[in-house]
């Protein structure tokens, strides 16, 4: 009774429509999901504060605790999280230096507390760090199975670097 084209079309619709609806629902649910991230980060110790090749360089120990479990939905593939040191200089209104990062593969591992040395050194483009006020900011990228990546951040604390090199 029906033409082959019609049947093919019906088959296509049958197969693709549920998938489309599912993808749409996933994005829709994500849009209405409002996570509540809790996090703290503090400088435990300044291990070294030096000037190298004319640039200030800091090595330090951080105490990071975070609960990012609310970022995980059934559509979450993984969460990339990184901690930056942010400060202002006369040259740049925002200097943003990544100190530590981590990939969280699942909800079970999204709540943690750890003491770590900075993975990447805090190096200034100059000699601006003595006595400088630095803000610690946690950034996260939620990578979904389908739909848009969500980026957000949260300011955690601030501290002042020493007035003198060590
Ligand atoms: C690290 O942070 C956790 C949670 O904020 C706190 O309970 C712990 O005492 C801190 N440890 C140090 C060495 O600061």
Automatic annotation (TrEMBL):
Highest taxon of the lineage: Eukaryota
GO CC list: signal peptidase complex
Pfam annotation, one family: SPC22
The UniProt record lists the keyword Transit peptide: no
Topology class, membrane: Single-pass type II membrane protein
InterPro entries xref list: SPC3
Signal peptide: none
Its biological purpose: Essential component of the signal peptidase complex (SPC) which catalyzes the cleavage of N-terminal signal sequences from nascent proteins as they are translocated into the lumen of the endoplasmic reticulum. Essential for the SPC catalytic activity, possibly by stabilizing and positioning the active center of the complex close to the lumenal surface.
Protein name stated in the entry: Signal peptidase complex subunit 3
Species, as recorded: Iris pallida (Sweet iris)
Lineage of producing organism: Eukaryota, Viridiplantae, Streptophyta, Embryophyta, Tracheophyta
